[in-house]
Amino acid sequence: MNPVIDAYNERQEEIRGIFRSRLITQILIALGSGEKSLSELRDITGSSSQAIIPKIRQLEALSYIESTKEGYRLTIIGKILEKEIEKLVKIISLSDSNREFWYNHDTKDIPAEFLENIGDLHNSAIIHNTEDNILKVHFNFIKLLDEASFIKGISSFMSPSHAEIIKKSVLRGIQVELIVTSEISAKMKEEPYEAILKTIIDRDNFRIYVYPKAIKIGMTVTDNCLSLGLYSKEPDFYDFTADLINSDEIAIEWGQRLFEYYRSSSKDFAINHQD
């Protein structure tokens, strides 16, 4: 049999006891950010001392938390458990609130190490084009760049309008770094892109990198926001009609790490010779 299923069968009462109790889960997550007093746990959970104390005793008996002079804190094994619970809560939240987006799009070019932490994007919103606003995603992209102090992007497509928006940001003095595929790189050496590039290519605040393979991701990361677009599963093309947006610091950090992941395997773009 599966050893994990075997382990679950042996410990199912303990496992179910944690996830069946709202209060136990809340106490563990609350203590994940550090030691808390009983009054702080009351405020965080919205529960009374009479409700909290039996759960604390249960967690102490399992060696997940321990008492201190000031209140309670996680033990080493409690810290490990809490991180996994927090990760599970985030993933379920992400899946539940943005289920259609993740189900209908291709995520194969999001590396496994980033999918493992996909819960960092749990507080996201999906922006869709609508019949009343067929350019809603595009206008949000413009707004995102207009408000940015720096821009890092991964682009699996390019259009003259996108190139002009990027040019505008560079000329405003914004630090812009862009990763494109080799296919897009070749396209950018043709008109009208070449003329646009020649006005900004030598600026210190602009860098283009070329990734040697196709990437089914469109991502923009700024100091304020992460914007993520993906290819549709069926048919297989970049979905211009929907973007995932998240302004949480942890989501922005996730996006910056993904950018660096692809940049580390890319090389500098050169406009006058083959990449």
UniProtKB/TrEMBL annotation:
Cross-referenced InterPro entries: ArsR-like_HTH, FilR1_middle_dom, Tscrpt_reg_HTH_AF0396-typ3, WH-like_DNA-bd_sf, WH_DNA-bd_sf
Protein name: Methanogenesis regulatory protein FilR1 middle domain-containing protein
Domain Methanogenesis regulatory protein FilR1 middle: 136-264
Superkingdom of origin organism: Archaea
Classification lineage: Archaea, Methanobacteriati, Methanobacteriota, Stenosarchaea group, Methanomicrobia
Coiled coil: none
A Pfam family that the UniProt record links to this protein: FilR1_middle
